[in-house]
């Protein structure tokens, strides 16, 4: 990829369908006036100290429908002809795009049908219906859901609204970039999550035309990173076996149009681990008091993973906050474990009165908070007078975690990890 730090970009270095300009984004911004919120930019004291420069969070998790998706969806549907509007629109999504299309269509008086996977979180299904869409559950994975939506479009004449591979979608998402430049004119780096690439492409079109000195850095989950091999190959490459908690950026192949823009304008695409994503989501909740989904936390995960790699001031785009409460609970526990603040272990006790109280006394002296205690009294590995105890503990960090385990071993307990 080219080095954009020294050579300014022309207004549109692209050709064909990818030849979006900042004027397209500005027109989208006018269209979205009174529809999409100009979301706030919040400073992060913790991340600023970590990076060594000001870090701001662009809170698209506070956008209408809980993500940036309303921007592109509204611009795309608003551009339809009268005949196309009469035919209605159809989309496929597990969450954010579904809600964005549903609300945008409702605001524009257009009928919408949204296909969602059978296992989609119930809060997202309910929200999509509440925004006015007819929801149809089909398929176990998004690819099956997408095929069903496209078949519906062919059969009924409804217009298929792609989540990222369309000029109007990208122009709408690019309005995030215009707002960042207005809210933080001194910005030097913008970090944004990347799935199919619509948001990163739109931000890059707007920012590079007006401020070619500003770096635009994309972030993907390591378990669902289609852009690094695609950029290496020079064309979109499909990857299989996607595995990440970040459903919002879990895309197996870049969009054709956003890929060309990302290839030309985005300075770098990084990957982050699942532990980093969980830690970033936990940090957003605890330090920034913001509910952010894993995909929305991916820029923060990049900052946590390599804080010295970003020139400040930095703006990290929190792209969405729609997360199922049950998933949130699991992710936060995982994030606490990754941060050394959650300890799960097993040990054996002699099955006699007072044995558990003695164990809990050791933990109390070590200032460990006991979250859960489980007992197993029978099993092929246990002696006649033994009981196995599984403990879930909260600690204050890696050092305290080590102190707790040392205290248990000093007291004569043999520890092992849960199976």
UniProtKB/TrEMBL annotation:
InterPro entries assigned to the protein according to its UniProt record, in alphabetical order: ACT-like_dom_sf, ACT_dom, ACT_ThrD-II-like, Ser/Thr_Dehydratase, Ser/Thr_deHydtase_PyrdxlP-BS, Thr_deHydtase_catblc, TrpB-like_PALP, TrpB-like_PALP_sf
Metabolic or biological pathway, per its Swiss-Prot or TrEMBL entry: Amino-acid biosynthesis; L-isoleucine biosynthesis; 2-oxobutanoate from L-threonine: step 1/1; Amino-acid degradation; L-threonine degradation via propanoate pathway; propanoate from L-threonine: step 1/4
Keywords: Allosteric enzyme, Amino-acid biosynthesis, Branched-chain amino acid biosynthesis, Isoleucine biosynthesis, Lyase, Pyridoxal phosphate
MF (Gene Ontology): threonine deaminase activity
EC number: 4.3.1.19
Residue ranges annotated for the ACT domain, each copy included: 344-419
Family to which this protein belongs: Belongs to the serine/threonine dehydratase family.
NCBIfam families referenced in this protein's UniProt entry, alphabetically: ilvA_1Cterm
PANTHER family: L-THREONINE DEHYDRATASE CATABOLIC TDCB, THREONINE DEHYDRATASE, MITOCHONDRIAL-RELATED
Protein name: L-threonine dehydratase catabolic TdcB
Source species of the chain: Streptomyces ramulosus
């Amino acid at each position: 990829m080219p080095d954009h730090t020294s050579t300014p970009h022309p207004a549109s270095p692209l050709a064909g369908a990818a030849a979006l300009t900042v004027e397209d984004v500005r027109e989208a911004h006018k269209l979205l006036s009174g529809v999409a919120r100009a979301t706030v930019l919040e400073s992060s004291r913790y991340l600023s100290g970590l990076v060594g420069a000001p870090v701001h969070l662009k809170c698209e998790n506070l956008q209408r429908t809980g993500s940036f998706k309303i921007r592109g969806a509204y611009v795309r549907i608003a551009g339809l002809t009268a005949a196309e509007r009469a035919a209605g629109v159809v989309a496929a999504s597990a969450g954010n795009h579904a809600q964005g299309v549903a609300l945008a269509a409702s605001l524009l008086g257009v009928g919408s049908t949204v296909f969602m996977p059978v296992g989609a979180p119930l809060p997202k299904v309910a929200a999509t219906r509440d925004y006015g869409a007819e929801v149809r559950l089909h398929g176990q994975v998004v690819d099956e859901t997408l095929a069903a939506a496209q078949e519906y479009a062919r059969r009924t004449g409804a217009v298929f609204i792609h989540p990222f591979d369309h000029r109007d979608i990208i122009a709408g998402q690019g309005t995030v970039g215009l707002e960042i430049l207005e809210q933080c004119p001194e910005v030097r780096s913008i970090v944004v999550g990347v799935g199919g690439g619509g948001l990163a492409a739109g931000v890059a079109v707007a920012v590079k035309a007006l401020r070619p000195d500003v770096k635009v850095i994309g972030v993907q989950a390591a378990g669902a990173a289609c852009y690094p091999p695609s950029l290496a190959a020079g064309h979109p490459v499909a990857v299989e076996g996607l595995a990440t908690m970040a459903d919002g950026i879990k895309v197996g192949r870049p969009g054709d149009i956003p890929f060309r823009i990302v290839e030309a304008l985005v300075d770098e695409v990084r990957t982050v681990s699942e532990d980093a994503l969980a830690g970033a989501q936990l940090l957003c909740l605890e330090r920034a008091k913001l509910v952010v989904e894993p995909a929305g936390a991916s820029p923060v995960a990049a900052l946590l993973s390599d804080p010295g790699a970003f020139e400040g001031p930095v703006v990290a785009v929190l792209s969405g906050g729609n997360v199922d409460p049950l998933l949130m609970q699991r992710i936060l526990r995982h994030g606490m474990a990754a941060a050394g603040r959650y300890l799960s272990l097993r040990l054996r006790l002699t099955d006699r009165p007072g044995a558990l109280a003695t164990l809990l006394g050791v933990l109390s002296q070590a200032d460990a908070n006991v979250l859960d205690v489980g007992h197993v009294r029978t099993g092929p590995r246990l002696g006649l007078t033994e009981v196995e105890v599984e403990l879930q503990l909260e600690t204050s960090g890696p050092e305290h975690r080590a102190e707790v385990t040392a205290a248990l071993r000093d007291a004569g307990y043999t520890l092992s990890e849960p199976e």
